[in-house]
Amino acid sequence: MKAIGHQRFAPLLALLLLACGGDSQFPTVPVTPPTNPVDGKHCRNYNAQRTPYFGDLHVHTTYSLDANTQGTLTTPHDAYRFAMGEPLGLQPYDANGAPTRFAQLSRPLDFTAVTDHSELLGETEICTNPDNAGYNSPECLFYRQSPDQAFVIFNFFGPGTDGLPSPSGGEFVPRLPYCGVNGERCLEAAKTPWRDIQRAAEAFYDRSEECRFTTFVGYEYTAAPLSNNLHRNVIFESEVVPEIPPAYQEYPAAEYLWQALSEQCKAADGCNYLTIPHNSNLSAGLMFQTQDDAGNDYTAEFAALRQQNEPLAEIYQHKGQSECLNTMGAGSRDELCGFEVLPYNNLTGDRFGGLNTGPPMEQDFLREALKEGLRLEGTLGVNPFKYGFIGSTDTHLSTPGNAREEDFPGHAGAGLNPRAGVPGLTDVIEVSPGGLAVLWAEQNTRESLFAAMRRREAYGTSGPRMQLRLFGGWQLPMDQCSRGNFAEVGYANGVPMGGDLPAATAGNSAPRFAVSALRDPGVTGAASERAEPLQRIQIIKGWVDAAGVKQEQVYEVAGDANNGASVDTDTCETSGAGFSSLCSVWQDPDFQPQQSAFYYARVVQNPSCRWATYQCNAAQVDCSVPDDVPAEYADCCNASYPKTVQERAWTSPIWYRAPPAAP
Amino acid sequence: MKPLLHFLLLGGVFFAAQRLTENWPIFAGTQTIFIRSNEVDRLQAAWQRTQGSAQDAAQRQRAIQQLADDEILVQEALRLGLNRSDPVVRSRLLQNLRFAYPDSSEDDESLFKAALALGMDERDFVVRQRLIQRMQQRLATGAVVTDEALRRDVSAHPQRYATATRVSFRQLFVSADVHGSDLPAAAERLRAALGSDAAVGDPFVGGHQVEGASEADLSKIFGSRFAQAAMAAAPGQWSGPIASPHGLHFIYVESVLAAQPADLATVRQRASYAVLAQAEQHRVQQAMVELRRRYAVVVDVASGAVQ
Known about the structure:
The structure holds two protein chains of two kinds.
Chain A: H1 4-8, H2 10-20, E1 51-59, H3 65-69, H4 76-83, E2 88-93, E3 99-103, E4 111-114, H5 121-128, H6 138-145, H7 147-157, E5 164-165, E6 171-172, H8 184-204, E7 214-221, E8 232-236, H9 254-264, E9 273-277, H10 300-309, E10 312-317, E11 320-321, H11 366-380, E12 388-391, E13 436-441, H12 446-454, E14 458-461, E15 467-473, H13 486-493, E16 495-496, E17 512-518, E18 534-544, E19 550-559, E20 566-568, E21 573-575, E22 581-587, E23 597-605, E24 608-609, H14 611-618, E25 644-645, E26 648-651, E27 654-656
Chain B: H1 2-21, E1 32-35, H2 37-51, H3 57-79, H4 82-85, H5 87-100, H6 108-117, H7 120-123, H8 125-140, H9 147-156, H10 158-161, E2 166-175, H11 176-179, H12 183-193, E3 209-213, H13 215-222, H14 224-232, E4 238-244, E5 247-257, H15 264-292, E6 296-299
Parallel strand pairs in B: 1-6
Antiparallel strand pairs in B: 2-3, 2-5, 4-5
């Protein structure tokens, strides 16, 4: 029933076998290097040493069923207007359809991709667009009358259903009945919003030399068998995109998605894509499992396919971080892994009182996946989990980049949040305002930004806009920080974040890493936005030892963990010194040439209030008198969640690959 | 068995039809429109739920007008015969009857006529919405994007379309991290040396040369106060020190590229999308003002007549 996987990849397999040659000792499957040539110098602020561009690659609008059921009426046009700094009205709407709340960024983003769910795009359109024949079907009536329940049921029986075998031996996931036979009606319906999404991206992409703002056409591939999250955001480089976004119902595993994209989005036609998994923390062990959909162990070609399609993963968003869990093994040394951990392991969350979910699992977190990637590379010759990092929001309110703790309006989707209009905390206590994606690019164009994603010269932040650089190399000068041209020296003598260390040459004892961070300056004036100074930079190294055991080590490389910075949680006033910038050249003191490893940097700010603390203070909640705490603010006194956070950023890793052992 | 099945199916259809239509006005076939009071009450309850307060008289009147507008559009669509020509209406009505009579051997045309004879086109929710949308499309037709409207929209949204002033400069930096409380004195020492080889500041990890930066670009690195001051600095000379969250900066502005108003030719295609959407919305609103004059609106007796 699942033979589909390898039949489809037969031509690729043949090519790869040719490429493998006769090297039985260490099979090498070449992962094609980025082939997208960066466009020429086009923008007025072109910078050969590259500029960090801040954006959001995970944004939902009314075209996503889960946003729509929460009353979101804002469109992709609205999302892009908001990202460019214009105010946006939010639900609930009054009788005239006028919004009753407003949001506005204190500083615009540089780029955004609207990524509505493709799977339910058709269904949502059918239920909300009277032109669609299914508008008055019982499912749609139910959906419009009881959107809360509809979310759960639609997701459980739509993308939440495991692939079922069909009589013909293929694999399919049944669509809801109103989609008609084989889902054709839903496909037809999806064309309209998909076209609207493309038009909005075109309307707000600044193609002039001003290069003020870049949009990407994209969508979310919503694979969630039994609510275990395997979602991917698909980002297209240009306006050339598939006619219909390949969805989970037709392509019920990531490898089928990649195959469909490779067929429907060809570079020869000007179509390029990549897929970005998110919320691996909610995949219940599935996101980084080491078998394909057919239950076969990873092969070199399959690993290469994954690496080729997925250079980046989302490390943080509304539904928690996916960096590290800190519950087992060496990870228990890293107390900063306690940041924004969701207490369950799939999308069901607390919805059914803990049924169909469990505690979070270490293997679902990227640090562990990177180690597993090294382990697989040792046996396959190719690393399937070679992920760089970005952050994003996953907003379901069409509010990209709205990641501030001070005014979190809630996730407003995925059925987690209270209904709009109900007073109290704007969302359940475990979610958070999400983060940003940052791309180091020569200029703010689709081509330049997409190339940065491909080469993983990217990092994620938990919201603030610190500027973070990482270079790795054998001959980086130890005084690189005191030279005036940190970046130039870094590019000339090493590789930036996301890259591979070149092979060591004779006389190089251990690799060096040059890391620098510049604090978020914040915003002063009317639309002020506070930002804390930096506290420290760490480098996290992961490897697999000779006994096959995964290891990690966190090194403090700059700043001061004990700088005495603190925050008064009653007022959210911060105190204590921090750093405006931090910089260090660090050489691995424990380097073993025969051990492959990855290195990434993490910079943290001084502590500040968590989003709920601001809201609890504003409501004057007094936890010392439990009986007086209103039910809707009960979680203000939930000791399981911290009052403060240390905002942070994570660079994409740099990899060191050990030479094959002598035969 | 079959008659029972038909009975159950028909029962279901009637039940569904009743549920669907009970909130809709009774049509008198005249230019008077009746709005049921329970429909008005439903909107009132929804408002109360989300806003936490009752509608005032004006808000209630607006809610009634909303219901009336929909009904006017349906009646206009019927008057123009859109119910007989629209393919979506036709397919929806056929779908209803094929569901009700799964074994019927009647051809589509007969079934369609039967549906119209039953008045299903006035009650089915999908058909109503389709007719409303068709009417709105008709009313919007003819909206044009004039150069005048484009120019207005483009000049009203400089944040989308205009170009910014851009500066290129080199800087000497005095780090607050390095100098702490000695920062002002360190800056004075550097100022005294400006222009000479002795003028060497602290390393700035963001670089010492800035090319073609707008105020927004500078704000991202140095904060908004620095950005404003840098944009105002005279070219061809040292300026500063200018404060930022990082410390103090002396800058030497090498060139300034003046801001330009948006170039219509460059942004025409982008702006046209926005302007067309606005123009269509305006045209429908204007047409509704005219149509409302032809209809009297009556809220049913229980609530007392209105207008």
